[in-house]
UniProtKB/TrEMBL annotation:
Subunit structure: UreD, UreF and UreG form a complex that acts as a GTP-hydrolysis-dependent molecular chaperone, activating the urease apoprotein by helping to assemble the nickel containing metallocenter of UreC. The UreE protein probably delivers the nickel.
Protein name: Urease accessory protein UreD
Subcellular location(s) per record: Cytoplasm
Annotated gene: ureD
Cross-referenced Pfam families: UreD
Signal peptide positions (record): none
Keywords associated with the record: Chaperone, Cytoplasm, Nickel insertion
HAMAP family the UniProt entry points to: UreD
Length: 259
């Protein structure tokens, strides 16, 4: 996110709780951070919404770092979380992998938008990302993940990610990806990335999709991807692109259409 010096083995956490304020808006009774994170409330784009930005106070994550974000949108709240810049996964003196854990909870009638900037896997880095989302039956979720494998002219580091969504306690989506040196063979082959270096997905869960859910389709344009309905009121858009800008444009089109 932001530049600066960092130590291996940093422990960082951000905690956010959103709650209806009783006046048609959303309050933030919990907005706290420590370590390499800072959290800031900013001007909301939609009425009734609380908007929070994650700010990196140090470079990283580096090898051995452990970062976590815990966010809860209580019933009826509207919470938007973004970040001010891309996150760079960097090599560090500690040869252990870095870990970045995200835990999101969305109550009935609440909406949570999780829209951070890209994660860039730098050559020599090793990062494991775990995202877990727990949704009430009437929850609305918009979640975007974007990963860029290597900076210009370099290869990627090792990157593993797992995304798990549960709705009303039942599995909605559970997927795991691994790229870079040491990942299972074929990750860069024609059946997976096919040479692309930017990949992302957009997951949208809406109660209205119970009765009116978009049909499956292949994405048009300079990306390779698809819109896939899930077994529930949800869809996932997956895309591969030659660069981060092209990927973001494709996901923005899907976001405008679905969210």
């Amino acid at each position: 996110m932001s530049t600066g010096l960092a130590r291996a083995g940093v422990r960082s956490v951000a905690r956010i709780t959103a709650r209806p304020d009783g006046r048609g808006g959303t309050s933030l009774p919990v907005l706290e951070s420590e370590g390499s994170f800072a959290v800031r409330r900013t001007r909301a784009a939609r009425h009734g919404e609380a908007r929070v930005m994650l700010v990196g106070a140090m470079t990283g994550p580096l090898g051995g770092d452990r970062c976590s974000v815990e966010a809860r949108a209580e019933p009826g709240a509207r919470l938007h979380i973004g970040s001010v810049a891309a996150t760079l996964a960097l090599p560090g003196q500690d040869k252990e992998p870095a870990h970045h854990d995200v835990r999101l909870s969305v109550g009935d009638g609440a909406r949570l938008d999780w829209l951070p900037e890209q994660l860039i896997s730098v050559d020599g880095s090793d990062l494991r990302v775990t995202t877990r989302v727990d949704l009430a039956p009437g929850a609305h979720l918009v979640l975007r993940e974007e990963q860029v494998l290597g900076r210009a002219g370099e290869g990627p580091g090792r990157l593993g990610s797992r995304l798990t969504l549960r709705r009303a306690g039942r599995p909605l989506l559970d997927q795991e990806l691994a790229f870079g040196p040491g990942a299972p063979g074929g990750w860069d082959g024609p059946a997976v990335l096919a040479g692309y270096r930017a990949l992302g997905q957009l997951v949208v869960v809406r109660p209205g999709f119970e009765t009116d859910k978009p049909a499956a389709e292949v994405l048009d344009g300079p990306v390779t991807g698809a819109l896939t309905p899930l077994a529930g009121p949800a869809v996932v858009v997956t895309a591969l692109a030659p660069d981060a800008l092209t990927l973001r444009k494709a996901l923005d089109v899907a976001l405008h259409r679905l969210a």
